Amino acid sequence: MIYQALANPIGTPRLRELARNKNKVVLITSDHTRAVPSKITLPILLNEIRSGNPDADITILIATGLHRATTEEEQRKMFGDKIVDNEKIAVNDAFRADDFVHICTLPSGAGFNVNKLAVNCDLLVTEGFIEPHFFAGFSGGRKSILPGICSAETVNENHSYKAIASPYSTGGVLKNNPIHEDMIYAAQKMNVQFIFNVAQDAEKKIIAAFAGDLIKAHEKGCEFINSLSLCEPVTADIVITSNGGFPLDQNLYQTPKAVSTAQACAGDDGVIIMCASCIDGMGGTYFAKLVTSGTLEEIETKLSAIPPKETIPEQWCVQIYNRILKKHPVIIVTTYLDHELIKKANMIPASSPDEALEIAYGIKGRDAKVVVIPDGVSVLAVNK
User: Fold this and answer.
1) The whole model's pTM is what?
2) Which CATH superfamily is domain 232-381 in?
3) Which residues are bridge partners to 124 per DSSP?
4) What are phi and psi of 5, to 5 degrees?
């Protein structure tokens, strides 16, 4: 299906045709926090580009957003030794100001600063995967640019308190979503000429591929994901979920993605049990500091007073957790993260699902109804 998608792109010529006479090519891919099957897809994309221009000067640019740099060891696991040993690879660093150039002002009023490598190329190509996203509607497509390869200032403002608070900034929603609108505007300004996105099943196997135009191919992919993921919420007293395992369960910062889905099934005051290894800890120094900085009321007062242009990195996940925790006790099941830190984050720690369930039964009673959402990231629980 990968070859079929590349041979029949949506709304564009084939990538090999676009690559003709294009000397400098930048191919953007995702970082270590995303389960993009790059070991499969990148060699195929590189071959497709070189079929049109064997002498193309190709740089693989790893889109990190605000995440830490992807290590060489992680790159070898993601891409394979052959690509790491033979291809030019650059890792975006959102905090290295000299790497970025200002392009324009986005619809929200945010300044758009993007990695110079993507500006100074003849052909810009992105690869990724599509799944529901808890405030951008869906992942994939335009997200390779914003937040993928933008400066910290641009990412922060795109994820401001005001933007996150919009009722349209939620899973499965693109229309009127202010975060998506900035993202798509940024990607169009960069003249992304070709995207390649896949959809995956629970075992992270490719089940569909979408190639071609930035908007049209992404929309087709979102429609496909919507057809698989959309369901009516099943309300329960206790909701158990996860981020679907590695790599999205590496830290606490990523966990509100599944917790947001669980909230849709947790009624007015249901208990949410989130299972995540958190082997990489809290997931970000700003997030760790903010989420443990006080009571829910104190944190809300602090965040709501921050204007868009002064947005603190990673505050959006704290904002979303705060919104959920006002209504729902959240139990974090982890064997790696310090339980005292979880308590400071206004959540309840547990070392196993059984222990978490006992705590939840203690809150809701033995006759409590339980719903399990194995992978909360992949589900869109929406009242139709």
Assistant:
1) 0.89
2) LarA, C-terminal domain (3.90.226.30)
3) 26
4) -65, -40
